[in-house]
Amino acid sequence: MSASDTIIKARWFAPLLGFGSIVVGVLVLELSIRIGVINRITIPLPSDILPAFPRVIVEEDVLSRFLLTAAEAIAASILVTFFGVAGGVILYHFRLLRAATETWIAAIAAAPLVLIYPLYLVIFGRNASTIVMMGFTAGLAPVTLKTLEGLSATRRVLIDVGRSFNLTPWEQFWKILFPSALPTIFVGMRLGLIFALINIVGVEYLINFGGLGQLINELTDRFDLPGTYAAICFVILVSMCVFFLTERLERWLRPVE
Amino acid sequence: MTGSASMSPRSVLQPVTWLRIAIIVLVLLVWEAVAASGLLYRDVVPSLIAIGKSLFELLAFPDMPVRIDVDVFVFRIDQAVRIPHVYWHLYTTCYEIIVGTLIGGLAGLIVGIALGGSRLLRRAYEPMLYYFGPCPKIIFFPLMIMWFGVGPGSKIAMGAVSCFFPVALSVAGGMREIDQILIRVGRSFRANTWQMVTKIYMPAMRHPIINGLRLGFGVALIGTLLAETKLSNRGIGFLVIQAYTQFNMPLMYSLLIVLFVLAIGANALIGRFGGLDEIKRK
Known about the structure:
The complex is a heterodimer of chains A (257) and B (282).
Chain A: H1 3-9, H2 13-34, H3 46-59, H4 62-93, H5 95-110, H6 117-124, H7 128-152, H8 156-164, H9 169-207, H10 212-221, H11 225-253
Chain B: H1 9-37, H2 48-60, E1 64-72, E2 75-83, H3 85-117, H4 119-132, H5 141-148, H6 152-177, H7 180-188, H8 193-204, H9 206-230, H10 236-245, H11 249-273, H12 276-281
Antiparallel strand pairs in B: 1-2
Helix pairs in contact in B: 2-11, 3-4, 3-6, 3-9, 3-10, 4-6, 5-6, 6-9, 7-8, 9-10, 9-11, 10-11
């Protein structure tokens, strides 16, 4: 094996290549804008965007905006978890209801629900309720379906063990069914949270109200290009961190195969 | 033999069908009762008759003059007719979604094949796509307006950006699932890269590609329509937000019905076209 093959196969090489590509891309962009290949009215210099980060964080009060978006996401997630898990449990226990509605719920999960936000604006007004309800609507179906999937996948032998101990239906649920379905329920909760977060930030931007989404809208309206780019990068970073953390949490909760 | 085992499929199906009908009827009755009671603000929940009337007018009332100028064999048709204006907006939206899906899908396909075909590229770039994919794409809309203007270009770009990620990730995953024997067969015939892509990779990845396109189409539709609601003067998204600003609730419900029928129909069409139903049956 040659030295170059050894370097390419090293664990650190691929992440370094990914990071290096971003750095090279930014440098090429900077150069292209400076020599006039790219119009700086549409894309500001990366060297202008970088100093805009601390400015946006301090002057635009990013922390409180982030906390507002986080509060909306948490409120939506609580609603999604409560109603989604309850819905899944009800469907599990009433087989006929499940047979009648499961395909409908799957269709709702795949439908572009975010497009009903003008309707929510009329019903709830231009306030945080619309944003939270939009997140709730988007996240409800995945949690319901995953809860149902988790409960249905409980091993027959575990249910039979519960029966042999003469457990009441309540005990059967809390001691057998629910612990067995918990990893799958958490997968659903993660999906629900992601759907809710995407919709919350999107609707914040669209209705110009709330936290991080509104920040982008305000900076665009002021034609603060470096600030807009910095804010978009900030929202992307926050989203990526949330997805990364929830994924790690899910892996930690998943039982060892 | 137990009672349940002796039931015919027809008798098992019947209660489900009845329950479905009952749920639909109950929802419609509750809707009509809420509309009549005035519990919510006036007209927020309009009566079903008002929505039906609005939907009929939307789809059938010819209120927009258009000029048809086409050649059919030796005949030339050139005349002014009137059509319901929704069809022109629907055409704009469909055009934006289809072009956006094609651009994003093609880019996703190329990137997916590159990532799936190389272990190094996969390890270097796939985590970025994986974590970048679920970010709310609508936040890029201000940039799209600056780059492509306020016309259909920015909506097409939104559709393309939205569509790119699911297709790229699905194709990259599909590439890794290809039977190694097929790849070895291609190599043993000394197929070049283009031949490998067209004769081995693409046919073997038909289902991941169609699945990715189906997901991509769904998010492209959302991206395009949300962009239309934010800043546009044409398209179904524009009509929805116009109905909101005019507080024309029956029209808004009618447009949402049209939208959901469009989305579900296109989704089913792509699934059938790609043979996804066959996979599910297997």
